[in-house]
Design brief:
The chain is mostly beta strands and 114 residues long. The chain contains no helices and eleven strands. The protein starts with a strand and ends with a strand.
C-alpha cells in the first residue's frame, strides 16, 4: 500500500487548507482512512478518521473546523481545514490499516502563522 499526501503549506491563522491523500495497492473502497499529525516535540495524534462506509470521527481539538471526506473513484481521502490556528502546525500523515499492518504516507507540513 502506498499513500501519497499533498496540499500542505504555510497559511495565516484563520486561513484554510485542504490536504489530499491518494492511495494505491489496496481496495480503497474497503479501507478505513485517517489523518494524524505530529507537532515538533510532541507525539503523533489522530486528527480524523473515515470508515469505508463514510462514518467520520474527529478529534475534539478540530471539531467544527476540520472535515474528512473520501472519493472512492479517485482513491483519495481529503482533510479540509478551516479556521486554522498556530497550534495546528504539524506534519500531517495519511494512514490506513490493512491486513493487520499499519501504512503511513510520507507526511506533509502544515504551518500556521499567527
Amino acid at each position: 500500500v502506498q499513500l501519497q499526501a499533498s496540499g500542505g503549506g504555510l497559511v495565516q491563522a484563520g486561513g484554510s487548507l485542504r490536504l489530499s491523500c491518494k492511495a494505491s495497492g489496496t481496495t480503497f473502497r474497503d479501507a478505513a482512512m485517517g489523518w494524524y499529525r505530529q507537532a515538533h516535540g510532541k507525539e503523533r495524534e489522530s486528527v480524523a478518521t473515515i470508515s469505508s462506509g463514510g462514518s467520520t470521527i474527529l478529534a475534539d481539538s478540530v471539531k467544527g473546523r476540520f472535515t474528512i471526506s473520501r472519493l472512492n473513484a479517485q482513491r483519495t481521502v481529503y482533510l479540509g481545514m478551516n479556521s486554522l490556528k498556530p497550534e495546528d502546525t504539524a506534519v500531517y500523515y495519511c494512514y490506513t490499516r490493512r491486513w493487520g499492518t499499519d501504512f503511513w504516507g510520507k507526511g506533509t507540513q502544515v504551518t500556521v502563522s499567527s
